[in-house]
Amino acid sequence: MNPEEQAFEAELRRLRPAQPPEEVLAQWESAPLRSDRAGELEQGCRPAFSIGALLRSWYRPAMALLALGLLVAGWRVWVRHESNPIVASNGTAPLVADDVIIDRQLVAAFEGLAELPTGEPIRFTCYEWIDRVTVRDTARGVMIESREPRRELVPASLVTY
Amino acid sequence: MDDGLTQEAWGQWVRKHAPRLLLFARQLSRSEADAQDLVQDSLLAAWKRCADGQVPPLSAVFTTIRCRAIDWGRRSDRRTAREESVQESQSQVWFDTHVEDREMSQWVQSALMKLPDYYREVLTLRVWGELTFEQIAEVTGAPPNTVASRYRYGLAELRKLAREVKV
């Protein structure tokens, strides 16, 4: 550099950068104290980028994703179990139904007479049924029977004169 | 605070270097608030990286400020950033304005604002950051020879601009 440039440089150096506001300076001075990771400082210098840091940054999201996956998988298994009750209780293998009987039995039948809110009479027949479903797995010697009562009302027209 | 670097030593180090760090950050950020945030984040990062009883290397803090400023710039809309940056920079005061230097500080700031970024950052780091060309090369990622020539050309350009501003 020539003397003129050196003089100009010296002139620039005479200028001092402006001081930050006092409250900002105080904040910067106490910044490490407020850092929640201050306890880690005793471990010494760490590089700005490390594989460990990268893995740590991915750990929590990955764990959350894994937990979500397990939850969904568990829910699907539960739904499948609920929709298909013919599964062995120990969960080893589902039952194989080689004989299914669907049957219904009439328990009672009677006629009745009632009146609509409009005053019109109505005649009906009431049937009471027992619906029965039987499933057999002869290989495992298992039989499951389900019985459900059901009431059926059949209106009949009443001939009026 | 750990046993190595005491609160007092850290405070002294911050008070000594904060003005030059903030000057650099002001030149890279959109607003005064952004500049202060940049310095705070970078100081904290430097502290975390090096807490074995030693103060962090100044060049490392400058590097962090520069990298974060680039990241923040990428995240924000460039056009808006540039417009806001011009408006904010004109209201900022980059240098101490003692009576005898007030005029000079104003024309230096005006001239610096007109310099291309690659000249301005090298000049700032060298003159007010008091870094060597090798350290500036680490901060900017440019080879030391490039840094040295940018400094020479930047200084010449600043003189030229300063004359125009003064006239």
How would you characterize the overall build of this protein?
The complex is a heterodimer of chains A (161) and B (167). In chain A, 36% of the residues lie in helices and 30% in strands. Chain A has helices at 3-14, 22-34, 51-83; strands at 99-115, 121-137, 142-156. A three-stranded antiparallel beta sheet of chain A has the order 1-2-3, with no helix packed on it. Chain B has 167 residues and is mainly α. In chain B, 77% of the residues lie in helices and 0% in strands. Chain B has helices at residues 7-28, 32-49, 58-75, 78-91, 102-114, 117-128, 133-140, 144-166. The longest helix of chain B is centred in the last third of the chain and has 23 residues, at 144-166. Chain B is globular, with a radius of gyration of 17 Å. Classes of the chains: A alpha+beta (161), B mainly alpha (167). Chain A binds chain B through residues 1, 5, 8-9, 11-20, 24-25, 27-29, 31-33, 35, 37-38, 40-48, and chain B through 1-4, 7, 10-11, 14-15, 18-20, 22-23, 36, 39-40, 43-45, 47-52, 64, 93-97, 101, 104-105, 108, 123, 127-128, 152, 155-156, 158-159.
